[in-house]
Amino acid sequence: MSWLPRIIGLYVVGFLSAFCLISAIIAASQAAQTETEKKMFEDDLKGTIELQKGESYLFTFASNPNRYLDNDGKWKTMASPATLDPDEEIAWFAGPDSTLKQDRTYGRNILVTGISPGTGEVWCRSHWEFKNASGGLTKGQMTTTWRVVVKEEAPPEVTVSSGSIRGKVTMKGTFEPVAGAKISLLGTREYTTDGWITDASGEFLLELSGQQIPEGRYRIAAHKSVEKGDLWQSNEVVLDLTQDKAQAGIDVGSVEMEFIPLSDRFLDIGILRGKVVMRGTGMPVAGAIVELIKIEGENMIAFDAWMDGNGCGPVAPWPRDKLSEAEQRNYKSYRWLTDEQGRFEIDVARDIPSCMKEGLYQIQVRKPSTNTSDMFSVMDDLWPVRDYRVQITVETMEKGIDAGTIEVDRVKSLNM
Fold first, then answer.
1. What is the DSSP-derived secondary structure letter of residue 74?
2. Together in a domain, 271 and 246
3. How far apart are alpha carbons 335 and 366 in whole angstroms?
4. pLDDT at 372
5. CATH classification of the domain holding 239
C-alpha cells in the first residue's frame, strides 16, 4: 500500500492548486470591476412616424446618452461625454414584418418601408462608454425607439418634372469638401442619376428635368467609396419636394459625411450558394445542416450567437421547414439544409436582412448519423474534410458568391 500516500498527496496538491487558481480569477475579476462599471443608460423615445403604404423612411442614428442608472436606483447625468464602444456593434430592428420592411442600411442609418397598414416599431441598440469619477470606464447600452404607423396608400401622386436641388457635401468635423460623392433622393424609392455627383468643391446640383419624381417628403443620401471603407452621410437632410419649390430652386444646405470602415457594413441583399458531396465518391449529400461561423481576428463566433449579441432576430425555430411560409417571413435564419442534389443557398434578403456583416466566414457543414441508438454513432456523423472559408463583401454578395464544392466524410475517417 505504499502507493496510497502518493495518490493522496497528488489529490492534496491538485486541490491546493485549483484553490489558488480560483482565488486568482476572483481577484482579477474584482479588479476588473473596479476599472470598468456596467450601467444602464437611459433609453431614447423618439416619438411617432407616420408612413403611407409603400412609403420609405430613413431612420438616422443620432442618439447620445446623457444619463445612467446609478447603484442607488436614480438617474444621474454623466460627468463626461459618452462615446461609442469600439468593441460593440450598432443593431437595428423593424417589425413586425407584416407591417414594416428593412430595405437596406445606409452606413449607420436604416431605410424602412411600410408594406401594409398597421402599427410597428423601429429601434436601434447602441453601446457606449464614458470615464467615471475613478478614472475607469463606465459602459452600457441604450435603445432608441420610434413608433411607426402605416396608413393606406395615398391618392394619385403629382410628379415633379423640372427644377433643381442644390447643396454641399463636407466631412463631419473638418468641413472639408467631398468631391465625387453620389447623391440620391430617398422617398418611396431611391432616385438618382449618373450626373448627381459632387464637384471639386463638394457642391451638387440635381437637375430634375424629365425625372417625374412624385411630390412629397424626401431625404438626401450621400455616399462615396474610398480605400478601406466608405463615406456615408451622418446628418439628416429633409426636404418637401413640390413642383413650385423645385422650379424656384431648392437649397438644402450642408450634407455631412463620416468614414465607415468596410467591416461596419451590413448586407441587405446577396446570395451565397454551394454544394455538399462525399469525399472520394462525389455523391451529393442531402439534408446536411449548413451554418456560418464569423471569424474576427482569432475569435470564431457561431452566427446564431453573433445575431443574438447584435439584437438581430427573432431567430427561426429549428427545423425551419415545419413553419408555414407566412411564419417563416417573421423570422431570421442561421441554419440551412442541402436539397436532394446537395445544394444550399443563403439568400440574405429572404433569410437574414441587415444581420450579416462584411468579413471572413467559415462555412460549417454537418449531418448527424441516423443511428441514434449507438452511443458511438457520433463517429459516423459527416463533417467537412477541411476548413471552407469565404470573404464576404457587399459587392461580391450582390453579384452572388459560389462557395463551390464542400467535401465531407465520417468523423472516424477524418484526421482529428
1. -
2. no
3. 11
4. 53
5. 2.60.40.10
